[in-house]
User: What shape does this take?
Amino acid sequence: MKTGRVAIEGLRIPVHSLNTLVVGSGAAALNAAVSLHDRGQRDIAVVTEDFEGGTSFNAGSDKQTYYKLSLAGGATDSPRAMAEDLFRGGCMHGDIALCEAQGSAAAFYHLVGLGVPFPHDRWGGYASYKTDHDPHQRATSAGPLTSRMMVQALAAELRRKRIRVFGGHPVVGLLTADEGGAKRVIGALALDRNRSRGKQPAFVLFNAVNVVLGTGGPAGIYAASVYPESQTGSHGLAFEIGAAGQNLTESQFGLASLAFRWNLSGTYQQVIPRYFSTDRNGGDEREFLNEHFPDMGRLATAIFLKGYQWPFDPRKVADHGSSLIDILVYRETVVKGRRAYLDFRRNPSGGGTFGDFSLDRIGPEARSYLEKSGALQSTPIERLRKMNPPAIEIYRSHGIDLAAGPLEIAICAQHNNGGFKGGIWWESNIAHLFPVGEVNGSHGVYRPGGSALNSGQVGSLRAAQYIAARYGGKPLSKSEFLAATGDRIREKISLARQMIAGAAAGAGTGKKARRELRERMSRYGAHIRDPKTIGREAGKAWAQLARLKRSLQVKSAADLAEGFKTLDLCLTHAVYLEAIKEYLAKGGASRGSYLVLDPAGALPCPGLGGEWAFALAAPESFVNKKIMEIAIDEKGRVPTEWVDIRPIPPDEAWFETVWDDFRNDRIIR
Ligand SMILES: Cc1cc2nc3c(=O)[nH]c(=O)nc-3n(C[C@H](O)[C@H](O)[C@H](O)COP(=O)(O)OP(=O)(O)OC[C@H]3O[C@@H](n4cnc5c(N)ncnc54)[C@H](O)[C@@H]3O)c2cc1C
Assistant: This one.
């Protein structure tokens, strides 16, 4: 990496010129950097807004899952079988599914080699269990903080390899050049947080042949979110330069606690806690689920099942299914404006004809599970203590004692299956830009639990393979780089100056703007979607963006990164709402992890008003046969395109042919 300086608009800006810039420091980004280095590309650097920020480092669950090919004992699995299971989730390209399956073992053993403590038996078999949408028992886990352990192992390797890290450097713009009429990424503009102060922004330029984008999911666009607070996402960076998103409508939503953002899945539900709600001031306590279930047995069984049916799924609503609970919590909190809680101190209560709680009243599957786990104690907290003490501990480490009080809950955004489109080497439609990890939208409508982490590792490895093989070489000269990017850099500097100009008067406008867009997204673009309101809300989102571009103010240059982030989030939520609008306009109905209100459909349960009626998207419907792509064009419009779903490619593994192609360098292309 060579470093120089340039003077632009009265600022002296450092320019780092290198082969590949990796943006972000989550599990996917770090693996890209480590894998590039392993393949001989040493002219690289990682730039991140927060080295210990992001989802991988800060999120987990009661047993955080990593999905991989079954590798232990007599397991009869194959990459093709795994690809078929990924593909069956719907709206996922078959070639990508095959790559994720083929690359699974290598990516997994890479982590094992780096020291991630995935459990194995005496003979070296990596035991696994069944997760959701997983017919093959492919899931493994290193505990509640699997992804944090992955980051720690990869970060240690990064240090061993002495790969340069620019911490506290949020990227605020990607830079492109025209190449034969198409766009190619050639670098990025970042802010140096520690040196930006007063009215002086400290910008930093990166002049790179390639950019690997590992900025994670669009967490910051939701008010109700179980993403860690340090993760906000930066999709706006790529939308701004015309990168195409796909399957943006497909995210996962589920029950989580608010005081400390944590998924209430697995044992938290299997111990059957009590759900109740109160008014805003804590009065008028009610066990609001009772009136929508026929009896205590059905209610307690639905709560138990929520443990391994965690993401909201409209297919699991009917017949008092576990996802009915998510609808009722949403109705209680968002529609009625009350507060909902989980209480581990007491069993659900009923009385009268509804019946009181008893472990003899729950379904046989639930009863047998609790029996086998030795968890037939008389209260939820005792059962949790027996089945999963670390689940209590993790709350205690955040100052919350589950034995002492209830947990406030909401239906929260957790993961985006969609994201930016990439080919089989994870390169986007913008040449040399490689979205990896959650920012890459490789998944479809449903995905097996744990496949996000597999996808992040395989995708970043494949991006590194491609870059090392095809996109080596030197970046542009400083003058060529500036000739191509000068206008855009000046535009960003001028935006920064405009944001600082109002200084003190501007305090708080960013916070208010974020609250507005987050509430819009959680109310209209999360797990309950309404064709009647979506157009209006998308319109409001674009109007807010136009307003913010003119008037957003920050207190000083030290807050500029937040200002740029607010604009990024506003753009991102507008594009996401636009995608949902298009999906609904094409007649798209409920699927994945969201419910589309439809007066012609069925009620979730008797007694709920007609406004809650919905129908499931039929397997043969238009939206299930295509993948929606969306991008911002040169004129600022947001066209969508529905593309055919590519099938899983046929087997090509005839050794002599593969060897010939391999020797003649016809594989990576
Ligand atoms: C509660 C919860 C539980 C989960 N459980 C599972 C599970 O069991 N199994 C599973 O497979 N998946 C799970 N997931 C999803 C999975 O953890 C994430 O998809 C994955 O960790 C994302 O990794 P990543 O590397 O793509 O991004 P992240 O780990 O989110 O990293 C993004 C990085 O980009 C940086 N960044 C962002 N914007 C910028 C910018 N402008 N400039 C510089 N840096 C930037 C951030 O600081 C961060 O370092 C879970 C998610 C949550 C929230």
